[in-house]
Amino acid sequence: MDRIKTEIYNIIERAIQAAVAAGELAISEVPTIPFSPTKTPEHGDIATPIALGLAKQARMAPRNIAEIIHEHIDADTLKRIDSNTHPIIHKIEIAGAGFINIHLSDNYLYDTLQTITEMQSAYGTCNKGTGKPVQIEFVSANPTGPLNIVSGRAAAVGDTLVNLLNAIGYKAIREFYVNDAGGQVQRLGESIDVRYRQALGEEALEIPEGGYQGAYLQAFAQTIVETEGNAYLQLETDERVALFRDKGIAHILAQQKASLERFRVNFDVWASEKAIRESGKPEEIIQLFQEKEYLYEAEGATWFRMTDFGDDKDCVVIRRNGEYTYFVPDAAYHRDKFDRGFTTVIDLFGPDHQGHISRLKNFVKALGMPDDWLEISIIQQVNLVDAEGNRLDMSKRRGQFHTLDTLIDELAETVGEQFAVDVARYFFLMRANSSHLDFNMELAITHASENPVFYIQYAHARCCSIFEQGGEQGITPKPIAEVSLKQLTEPMEHELIRKLAEFPSIVLLSAEAREAHRIPHYLYELSGIFHPYYNQHRVLDTKDMEKTYARLILVQCVQSVLKNGLTLLGISAPTSM
Fold it and tell me: Do 99 and 31 fall into the same domain?
């Protein structure tokens, strides 16, 4: 499709230049010519609104501009189009207020099937990234409790973005930054200490302010008592809290890893804030900022001149007690990413990190990295909707939150473990990152076409069943070279092929725009064309084997694209349902 668009672009561009040279279009320069798929086959396959875009500059009605452009398409091209010998274009026409609609030839449709058949699982991939290393950091939940469903959404999005970037030729990796240092893990140790002493019978104890109330810590403390008894009561409080802090981090991090693996997300790198702090890199950051005169002392603390970078106020980097704020190890961590050679770094943050974006980017700028080196996206809130349509409140500190594992467990009770993960991943991916997501449990467990992930998976299963039925009837698909694709004459068949042809562009756009939700939308639309086709047209027809062989090629291509798309999403492509 990109090759086709390039050729059409050149045809339109030459026509505009010819019209300008002839004095029929008064414009100073030819702008970029946009193209988009048409909404209905009657309007062709590709349309450009370039005439509308030139109207103001040319001081002419868009339709008149479109007609002038059409008249200046070179004679040889028009002659081949009119005589139906052009390899790509069947017809160019003016429509509406000035759209230029391009109807592609059937050769393009057949070439699409040929390409899919040859490439199979590689269809949709390209080498746009030329192997450049990209790092995506996502989830990075504090090791203070189980992963909640917001982390689940981040896991699905981040994992899919890595798949997409690798599909277009980048060398992308998944990285989890473990916040195993600082105040939050200190409060974790204090909270476990209270639960431990309570389990041993101490009363009148309360979780410290800012601590963690969850029952998961009660269970963990009880396990410590059952295995170690009261041995830790002999330790000084600070020593005991530090020990429980480390034990708690290790225990909860292991749970988080298990949850992610269950969710089919396997990180390539697990980075540690504690290791960053102990490496001496934060001290290097402070020294560099001092040399660049970005720091100053005030109110007993050390401040960074954030206002030098356009922010409305400066920020503290070293507190009065000499401890770093989280900005310093964060800056050091990103310097570490840069030193590892990543040409692009993408951070996926939760909704509570919105205010951190500009400051982190300013720190990165102060460190001398290129402006476009760091990209940050917010993965917005997920609201779990119950059977009555009520949203469930989630708070890790208050112990009222729905974990990713609990969600999968509840889905699995109805749809089974495999499909529970499929459904969860799809629902997390079906909206843009910037949109809040209501996770509809009633729809998620529905075994019907209303459930979008089952609708897509059923389309793939139907493709598989056609070949199974063919085998039972003794029908063996022929190689595409031996098949007359001109047997595919039905409008729905052409519509299917046009949709299949869009897939590589959708993958490329999704990866470059960091918009994973485009893939589930595309797969749903493709399935929405295939299901009616399956219901209205017989694929296996022993009375017309030439058409049968051609339709088997088409079904095989639909099957390949559905599987390729589902694989990018980390969702299974079942052969039967």
Answer: yes
Q: How confident is the model at residue 28 (pLDDT cuts 50, 70, 90)?
A: confident
In this prediction, residue 192 carries a pLDDT of 96
- Whether the predicted pLDDT of 278 surpasses 50: yes
495 CB-near residues (< 8 Å, 6+ apart): 41, 529
Using alpha carbons only, what angle is made at residue 366 by residues 360 and 371, rounded to the nearest 5 degrees? 70
In a domain, 137, yes or no: no
Do 481 and 536 have their domain in common?
yes
Phi and psi torsions of 269, nearest 5°: -135, 135
C-alpha to C-alpha distances, 166 to 269, 347, 505, 573, nearest whole angstrom: 16, 17, 15, 20
- List the structure tokens of 106: 């059937």
- Can you give 224-247 as a three-state secondary structure string? HHHHHCCHHHHCCHHHHHHHHHHH
Question: Per-residue pLDDT tens for 336-379?
Answer: 999 999 999 999 998 888 878 999 999 999 999 998 999 999 99
> Domains in the chain: how many in total?
3
335 near 367, Cβ under 8 Å? yes
The lowest-confidence range among 161-175, 296-310, 388-402 is 388-402
Which residue range(s) make up the domain with 67?
Answer: 2-104
Strands (E) in 85-167, as ranges, are 89-95, 99-104, 133-137
**Within a domain: residue 515?**
yes
Which CATH number fits the domain that encloses residue 98? 3.30.1360.70
CB 457 within 8 A of CB 529: no
- Are the beta carbons of 392 and 384 closer than 8 angstroms? yes
Q: Locate tokens 């890790």: which residue?
A: 396
Flag whether pLDDT at 398 surpasses 70: no
Give 307's Cβ-side CA count (13 Å radius). Answer: 6
- CA torsion angle 395 399 403 407 (round to 10): -100
Provide Rg for the chain, Cα atoms. 30
For 328-339, letters b (16+ CB in 10 Å) and e give bbbbbbbbebbe
The pLDDT of residue 393: 56
pLDDT tens figures, 114-160: 999 999 999 999 999 999 999 999 999 999 999 999 999 999 999 99
249-276: per-residue pLDDT in tens? Answer: 999 999 999 999 999 999 999 999 999 9
